[in-house]
Amino acid sequence: MEKYLIIDTETTNSIDDPICYDIGFAVIDKNAHVYEAHSYVVADIFLDKELMKSAYFADKIPQYWEEIKEGKRLLRRFKTIRFIIYDICKQYNIKRVFAHNAKFDSRSLNLTQRFLTSSKYRFFLPFGVEWWDTLKMARKILKKDDEYGSFCYENGYMTSQNSRRYTAEILYRFITGDNSFVESHTGLEDVLIEKEIMRFCFERNEEVNGRLWE
User: Fold this and answer.
1) How confident is the model over 171-176, as a mean pLDDT?
2) Which of 45, 86, 108, 146 gives a 20 to 30 Å CA spacing to 17?
3) 42: which DSSP letter?
4) Taking the mean position of all CA atoms in its chain, how far away is CA 109?
């Protein structure tokens, strides 16, 4: 069975120019079975106190330090994390990397790569590995789904233009039936809910196209 990598980043700087300080990822298959999982805090960024001031979830910094001390997360340099991902892609012959709103995660990883190497190296993933977006997949699967439409309407999960919302938190609430679920907004923990969104989409339509760029 084909193996995939699913990844999530937490970032600082700005939404338009995100630089990642937390990278969580897991090797999974189409059934969302986890073969291995990793949680890394990017030392080059996380130890820069000035840069971390603009982190959207800066209030979680003490939590990160506690989890680093406990060994729950590993503090590593960005290039080390990248080497680990390269090795995993080679080991499992990974050709597709998934993320929810993959455009953001691909931008944050590529921008961090360029920031830390002064653009000597510009792209994070190995050549030939495709980005797939579970957000794009969910929109295709649920755009005309009456049950999801009612779920969003009844719970106020609508945009100001009265369209359905497709955040990972809302989708996970729908899939699991747990409407009290709150997303962690930490890399690996978010990966473990996003893999269920991927699984759900493939179960609904095995041929759904989630390529970020056609």
Assistant:
1) 98
2) 86
3) E
4) 11
